[in-house]
Amino acid sequence: MTLHENEVPIDEATVGALLREQCPRWAGLPLSPAGSGTDNVMYRLGDDLLVRLPRTAEKARSVRKEQEWLPRLAPQLARAVPEPVHAGAPGAAFPLAWSVYRWIDGDEARHDTVHDWSAFGADLAAFVRELHGIDLRGATRTGDLSWYRGGRLQDCDAWVAPCFADCRIASDTTLDVETLERLWRAALALPEPSGAHVWLHGDLKPTNLLVREGKLHAVIDFGCLSVGFPDAEHATVWDLPPQARQAYRDALGLDDPVWARARAWAIAVGITGVSYYWHIYPAFVAECRARLQAIVAAEG
C-alpha cells in the first residue's frame, strides 16, 4: 500500500536482497511481514530480529536517529525499548538507511490484552516520567531532534486549520468538527509552555505500547524522538480508555493548561490524519477518528 507520493517500494524481495548484500549471516532466516505504519514497513527475521525500512527519504532520518540515540537512552529506562543490532546502509535494492532490531515479544495495548487500565495508565506515566527525566547531554531542539510536536501550537495553526474544513466536507464523517475546532482555538489562546525541554518519544499510541501478562512491557518506535516541551507527549492518552487517561494525568499531576494543550495536540494529529489519509489509509483514519471522538465524548 503506497501512502506518499515519494515513497520507495518495499517488499519481501527488497529485504532479502539487502540481507544478502549486507547481512549474509541472516539471509537464510525466515522472513515474514510484521506490520506497517505511515512511516515504516517491518518484517520479522527469524525468531529474534525485526527489519525496519522507511517509506521515504525523509523518514530515513528517523532510522538514523534511533540508531544513534536508543543505545544511550535504553539503560535509563525500566521498560524494554528497541535495540538496534545493525545499521543498514543504502544499497542496490533499497536507496535509504534501514535497521535491524532485536525482536520484542508482546501484544499491542488493547481491551483484550490489558487487564487493568488504571494501572496501565499509571505505568505509562512512569515511563514518561523516566524518559522526560533523562539528562539531555547537550542534545538540543535542532536538526533531527526538532519536530513540530514539542514546539508551539501556534506554529501549527496554518496547516492544521484547513483540515477542519476538509473534515467537514469529507463523506460519511460524523465528527463533531465544531467542538474540536473550538477546543483547538481555546488552546491556542493559552500561554505558551514555560518549562524546560525534555526528551520526547512523540508517538505513544497503543500500537507502540507492548503488553505482556496484561501490563506495559515495552515501548517501541522511537522514530519521532525529539527534544521539546512535554505537552505534546500526553496527546495519545485519548487513544486509551478514560480510566487509563485519568490515572495517567493523576500520576503526572498535569494541570489544566497542560491538559488543554495536550488535548489540542491530539486534535491536531487526528484532524490532519483524517484529512491526509482519508482516501488512502482507512485503518489509520479510523484510528484518528476514534481519538477525536474520544475527545468530544470527554467534553460531553
UniProtKB/TrEMBL annotation:
GO terms for molecular function: transferase activity. Keywords: Transferase. Residues 32-265 form the Aminoglycoside phosphotransferase domain. InterPro entries: AGP_Transferase, Aminoglycoside_PTrfase, Kinase-like_dom_sf. The keyword Repeat does not apply. Pfam families: APH (PF01636). This is Phosphotransferase.
